[in-house]
Amino acid sequence: MTTKRTSKKKTATAKTGNELQHNSPEPAGKRLTYSVKLFTETIERARNAVYWTPGLSVSGLVEESVNKAIDQLERKRGEAFPARPKQIKSGRPIR
Length: 95
Description:
Elements: E1 2-6, E2 11-15, H1 40-51, H2 58-77
Antiparallel strand pairs: 1-2
């Protein structure tokens, strides 16, 4: 089954089975707040990019970048990641 969703930025195709699944940078559904720690230089570069790119927001830049990174990992893996069986641990990693 193939479904097409369109957004202002691009069209995405979701496929089932052994085919790769690509999620739109603007998937339908609820938006959540997700906090991460980044180096100051990374944050400043993001803010500069947003300032000098009309129509771009920090959230949009981060969402597009994360989706591109996940797409790259899935291509390298050869398939989409399955749903996780349990929640990942949050907070500082134990050393």
